[in-house]
Each structure stands twice: as C-alpha cells, then as structure tokens.
Design a protein that fits this description.
By secondary structure, the protein is mainly α. About 65% of the residues lie in helices and about 0% in strands. It is built from 36 helices and no strands.
C-alpha cells in the first residue's frame, strides 16, 4: 500500500487514471473470489452467506452482469460438489432480477451444447444436473425439464448410433433424479412414469457383452459386480418406491422457500441433443466397484445398501471432490474428510472404497496411479487413529479375494501396496498371510506376495526385505540381484570363447577402439558354421554372448554404468545385431546375466529399444519365446511389453505430428503467397523454392509415417498371434487330456490379452479390420474370440 501512495504523490493525476482502469479488474477478481468461496467453512451460516452474496451480486449486476454470468456458468461446470449452493444463489438472484435468471438459463443451455460438441461429457453431466436443481429453486419450470429429459431418452430410438451414446443420455437423466425426481413426479407424474418405462425398455434390450472385460472380480459374492446403468436404475427404482425421499443431499434452498416460491419461472428453450458424429468420443461403460457393506463397518453409522440412492449420492460427491482437487493431495484429503454429513455415514469406509474403485477402474483410472497412493498416505496422516485400520481391513479383503481378481487390477494393487509400505517402514502383519505358503507357487496369493516383495526391493534393497519378512517366507523373498558372468571363473576356461572374453575385457579396460575390439571378436568360433543354411555365416550367437556378457559385467556396478557402456559401444552392438536372430539373442543374453534382477532387465531392454539396437517386434518375440515361458506370468514381463508398445505408439504420434506441422506450414505459405501476389518476381521465386522444399519434406515424412504405422501394425499382429498360439495350444492340450483348462496360467494369460486391448484400445481400433481378417476369425476357439468380441462391444 505504501508504494501506491508514494506513486500518487509523484505522478500527480497519472496514478488516479491507472487506478481507475484497474478498479474494474479488482472488483471482478473480488466477485470471483466471493462466488468461488461461498459454501466453505465460515463463522456465519450458509444461508446468511448466500443472502449476503445475492445482495452484493444484485448490486453489481448493472456493471458486471456478463462477468457474473461467466463465473456462475463456470462454477456450475467445474465445482459439482457445491451444486446446490450455487443453484440456491441463482434462485435468489432470479427472485430479485427475473431477466438475469432468463439470461443465465440461456447461457447454461449454450454451454451445454458446446460441452457436448467438445466431447466434455462429464462437464455436460454437471450442467444437466445443475439445470435440474434449478427446478427446485423455482428458476426453471418442471414441465420444460421433463420435455428436455424426453428429448434425451429419445436418443435410444436413433438408428446406427453407438450404444455408448444412448447410455450417456440415459445416465444423464437417471443420475439427475436424486436431485429433482420428487419435484418432477409431483408436477408431471404421468410423463415421468412414461419416461422411466422407456428407460426400462432400453435397459432390457441393450447389449452387455462388454461387462466381463470391465469387472474387477469375476465372482459375484460377496458383492455383485453390477453394470453402472443397471445399478443406478435399481437405485432410482428404490427411490421412487420410497416416494422420492432422499436424506443426504444438502438443500440450502429449503430455507428460502418463501422467497423462491414467489419468483417467476423460465421455460427451457427446446433442446435437441447434437447429432452423432464420427469423431464423438463417448464415456466408456463402467462396472460399479463394491468392497464393503453394512456388516464391514461394525461401529458407528450404518453404511447405506448398494441399491439405496444415498450410496450413489455419497460416492458421486466423493468422486467429484477427487476430480476437483486431485492435483493437490493435501487439499483433496482434507476436503474428503470434511465431507458434509460425515457423522451420518461411515465416511472412512466410503472414502477407501471410492479411491480403490477409481484405482481399479477399467480400462484405466481417471488419474495417474501414484496420485491414489499419495492421497491414501495423506489420509492416514490426517486420521491416524481410524483410517489406517480401514485401509488394512480393505487390503486383507482384497488379499482373500485375489483368486477372482482381474490380473490388471492385481498389478495396480501390488504397485499401490508396495509403494504404501515403503512410506511406513515396510511394516505389515506378514504372519496373517502365512496361508499362501502352503499353496502352489502359480496361485494368485503366493504370486502376489512374491511380486510385492520384488517391488518393495526396488524401493529399498535386498537385505532390508530379508530383514523385514519372517523366515517362513524365505521361499517368496526375491533372489539376491547378482550378475551371472559365465567367463569369470577359471573353472569355465574350457567354454568356447573363454579366452576371447578375457581379451575383450582387457581391451575395454585399456580403452581400445571399436575396430580393435571387433578384431579381437573375429577369433570367436561360430557354432552355426556347420549348419547348411545361409544365415550361419552372418549370425554368430557366441560373439554376442562373449562381447555383451563381458561389457555388462564390467558395467554391472549401477544403471548409469550400464547405460554408458551401451552408449559407448553402440556401434559394435549394432554390427553384431544386424539380423532379427541377432536382436533376439542380445535380449536373451541380457536376461541370462541379470535374471535375478528384473528391474535391471526392464531398464536395459528399454535402453536397447531407445538406442535402436533392438526393435519393438524383437522384444515381443523374445517375451513370447519358449526360453521365457517360465517367466511368462511375472509382473516385469508385462511391464516390459507395455512399455515397448507405448514407445512404438509415441514414435508414430511424433512423426504424425511433424507431418501435420509441415502441411500446416505449407498451407500458411501458400495462403500468404496468394495475399502477396502483387509483389516482385524474385520473391515469388523464393517462395516457390520454399514450397518445393516443404513438399519434399512432406513426402519424406509421409513415407516415414507409413513405415512407422506398418511397424506398429506388425507389432500388434506379432503380439496377438503369439497369444492365440499359446492359448490354442493350452486349450487343445487340456481337451486331449480331459482336464479343466481354467488353470491359474490360463486366467493370467486371457486377462493379459484383455489388458493389451484395454490399455492400447485407441491404437488397436485403427487395425480392427486387419485383426478380424487375419487373426480373430470365426474359426478361432470361442474362449479366445470372446475377448475380442468384448473389446468390440466397448466401442458400440
């Protein structure tokens, strides 16, 4: 403040001028702050805060109406957890200024159309719900809201549209009824009954092929894994049976009923849902995650039943809080724990169930996995006396149900659990899980414990894991991550290539040049030379073994030493792996030397792809090869495969982006040339040269894109072909031997196939025609084909 006063004195009238121009900005910022903060903790009651704010906004309407409209439309879209607070505020403003109420409704409808066209379906859902609650605040007339719902439900009669389109409009109607169902039923009961009957008919005829692919658990006990629309419809049916009595939504407008009921209402303008376009991206269907019921929370308030609408409202609000604050874990945790009405419900159980529901959501969680870990840690810090116990109970329940848990979700569970333990000194009651020691090593429980300890070792070190786990678990403790160098022991001097390995080691230590090392390697005998095939001359597996084992042995001290070694001798490695067999063999050698250190294998394979020593298809072929069959169900194998696919996808996207940018640049230049057509001839000549260079660049990029897409398609064909071969062999073997095919290996393999489809669905969709013609044909075993059909159903 002192600085401003000082400038007033020095600048005379100038500063007053500057203050006058900045004053509207200050007032606009103040209005935004007031609107955004209403409903937060305050010494005054919510009602008096709303009344005061309505008075302030009414006074500012003549000068700042557009700004106020913009802010209110934004909070309706972005702060759904305070929905009823803002609808009450709009109701109070409408009661004082009818024209403003009308303009706000029109602005909301415009915004709804824009969000739908922009594929922002979650925000569109909040806007629909906001409009519904304005019926309770006497801003919008009930009959026009019912008419809008009827238009929404009419989408289910459209032909040749994806099922997910109809699903969204039905969900938008059903999910709004907890807020407005009572009011609409009182005013338009016949129309509401007809609407619900139409929805009932649609739900009975819609296809649910996709459900098995999206379920966290395959077993229906103790909690049924219901499809989201079926579950919500059951909740609404129960709400209707209870005469639309709902006891959990905060409804501040009730306190202002005498004022609001005097207000004039607006009719919604006729709303026609935007037509389906090929680029529309509708939300993917979901399966509702259930982990707890009223029997799991023994003390305190009772948890609402799975078909009570309160369960939907609570979960929806908690999801909204996470969506609004997920980037700030401390704020998010505090907001979750200060949830309104927390004394009426077992809040900790609801929070834990909602967080795990998001973490396990298929095809992918709404936010990055690590966010959920940090959020749960923050919640444990804020509620140390109660939340850790609920979290431990949830972990125990998930461990008990591992046999029927989806493999993709087991991956996410072990990532979360190991990361969580690393923040609490790896303390856990391991003795409670002693039952897993008596089971076959391939069963989910011992496999889970082994993978968790493996992951914990990445976040710590081997001896620490040995110290924290009871001795009885020694069979599941990861092996000591040592390097296996077969040319180290003099006892192995009879091995072919031993002498050369010693010579190569000395050459590397003496900083020999690449040419000198290649000369030394010429003495390595080629075990393929006796073969008749032509490839024998070019590919020498022993040469790769001798060089790479020796190089990695000298660089085994750390990740960075290994990376430097690969970079320094990149030229030699490229020369040794100039054929597909060579690329496969280099991967086998990396595994052989570091088989006790999966993390090192993962990062080295990653480095080999980045430096283009091996290609993505070689990695896929190696992982599915017989030499890796015993490791096939290990977590790190799938970590490598998905990382490989992601690299391939990013490579294609990068070249496509370069091509688009070059095309845009050419278009801009040609447009500029047309505008400047009256200028001199030499300028025209220069621009023609530039155009020619760009056209050549575009042609080169076009070829690169086609080549990369061909490589990408080949990668998916290799992966799916290997899956089909392995699964078919297993099914035939079981049928021939008259044994049950549904083994832990089969469950793991079929769910890994689902994972490929779910995690890379956007890319795979481009090649659906090829996959259907070449691999997923009608002759394929129906167990394998079912996975492809479930994936296709997700796109309907």
């Amino acid at each position: 403040m002192s600085r401003r006063r000082h400038s007033d004195g020095d600048d005379g009238g100038q500063s007053h001028k500057r203050r006058r121009t900045s004053e509207p900005v200050e007032i606009e910022d103040r209005l935004e702050s007031l609107i955004c903060r209403v409903g937060e903790k305050s010494t005054s009651s919510l009602e008096s805060n709303l009344e005061g704010l309505a008075g302030v906004l009414e006074a500012d309407l003549p000068n700042y109406k557009n700004k106020i409209l913009r802010i209110l439309c934004a909070v309706a879209r972005l702060l759904p957890e305070k929905l009823t607070v803002y609808t009450t505020l709009v109701g109070l403003l409408n009661a004082r200024n009818y024209n403003f109420g009308g303009e706000f409704v029109e602005a909301m409808i415009r915004q709804l159309k824009e969000t739908l066209k922009a594929n922002l379906y979650t925000e569109a859902l909040y806007l629909v719900r906001f409009l519904c609650d304005l019926v309770n605040c006497h801003v919008i007339a009930a009959p026009s809201m019912v008419a809008m719902f009827e238009n929404f439900v009419s989408v289910t009669q459209e032909e040749d549209v994806p099922q997910v389109r109809s699903d969204w409009f039905v969900y938008a109607v059903l999910s709004s009824l907890p807020w407005v169902g009572k009011e609409l039923d009182e005013k338009k009961d016949v129309e509401m009954d007809r609407l619900l009957n139409q929805i009932d008919g649609y739900l009975k005829r819609r296809l649910k092929t996709h459900v098995p692919m999206l379920q966290v658990w395959t077993a229906e006990k103790p909690h049924p894994q219901e499809e989201y629309l079926d579950c919500l419809y059951a909740q609404i049916q129960k709400l209707k049976k209870d005469r639309w009595q709902e006891r959990h939504i905060l409804r501040p407008y009730i306190a202002f009923d005498s004022v609001l009921c005097e207000a004039l209402q607006h009719n919604l303008p006729p709303f026609t849902p935007p037509a389906h376009m090929p680029d529309c991206q509708y939300p993917v269907p979901r399966v509702i995650f259930r982990m707890f019921d009223y029997t799991d929370a023994p003390e305190g308030p009772v948890m609402p039943g799975s078909h009570s609408v309160e369960r939907f409202v609570i979960e929806d609000n908690l999801h909204n809080i996470i969506k609004s604050h997920w980037k700030e874990r401390k704020t998010c945790a505090a907001q979750l724990l200060s949830y309104p009405g927390k004394n009426k419900i077992p809040l900790n159980y609801h929070i834990v169930e909602v967080i795990f529901g998001e973490l396990f959501q298929l095809p992918c969680p709404p936010h990055i996995d690590v966010m959920y870990t940090t959020l749960l840690i923050e919640l444990c810090k804020l509620q140390p006396g109660s939340l850790p116990q609920v979290l431990a109970q949830a972990t125990e329940m998930m461990y008990v149900r591992l046999d029927s848990m989806n493999t993709i979700c087991i991956d996410r569970l072990l990532n979360w659990f190991s990361h969580h333990l690393s923040n609490f000194q790896f303390r856990w009651s391991w003795d409670d899980w002693v039952d897993c020691l008596a089971l076959d090593a391939d069963k989910p429980k011992p496999k889970f414990v082994k993978e968790v300890l493996e992951k914990c070792m990445r976040l710590s070190y081997h001896q620490r894991i040995v110290d924290i786990v009871p001795p009885t678990f020694s069979g599941l403790i990861p092996a000591d991550p040592i390097f296996f160098y077969k040319y180290q022991d003099e006892a192995n001097s009879a091995l072919p290539g031993y002498a050369v390995a010693i010579a190569v080691g000395n050459a590397i230590k003496n900083r020999a040049s690449n040419e000198e090392i290649l000369t030394v390697l010429k003495d390595v005998p080629n075990p393929n030379q006796e073969d008749d095939d032509d490839e024998g001359e070019g590919f020498n597996p022993l040469k790769i073994e001798v060089f790479l084992q020796t190089l990695l042995h000298l660089a085994a001290k750390s990740f960075s030493h290994s990376f430097s070694a690969l970079a320094k001798f990149h030229e030699i490695l490229k020369a040794l792996t100039d054929c597909d067999e060579g690329k496969l063999h280099i991967l086998r050698v990396v595994y052989e030397v570091w088989k006790n250190h999966p993390q090192m294998v993962s990062v080295l394979v990653d480095k080999l792809i980045r430096t283009q020593i091996v290609d993505c298809a070689a990695v896929a072929n190696w992982l599915f090869s017989p030499s890796m069959a015993h490791e096939f169900t290990r977590f790190y194998v799938w970590e490598i495969l998905h990382s490989t696919i992601r690299k391939m996808n990013k490579h294609v996207q990068k070249i496509q982006k370069e091509l688009e940018e070059a095309k845009d640049k050419l278009e801009r230049q040609q447009h500029k040339k047309q505008k400047d057509s009256g200028d001199e001839e030499d300028m025209e000549k220069n621009s023609e040269d530039e155009d020619g260079q760009l056209e050549e660049q575009i042609e080169r990029l076009q070829e690169k894109v086609e080549s990369a897409q061909s490589e990408q398609k080949n990668l998916f064909l290799v992966i799916f072909q290997r899956f089909i071969m392995m699964l078919t062999e297993h099914l035939v073997r079981c049928e021939t031997g008259s044994v049950d095919f549904s083994t832990p290996w089969y469950k793991n393999c079929i769910e890994r196939l689902q994972q490929i489809f779910l995690m890379h669905h956007v890319t795979i969709q481009q090649y659906m025609g090829t996959l259907e013609n070449l691999l997923f044909t009608a002759e394929l075993d129906h167990h394998i084909l079912a996975v492809y059909q479930q994936f296709c159903a997700l796109q309907l």
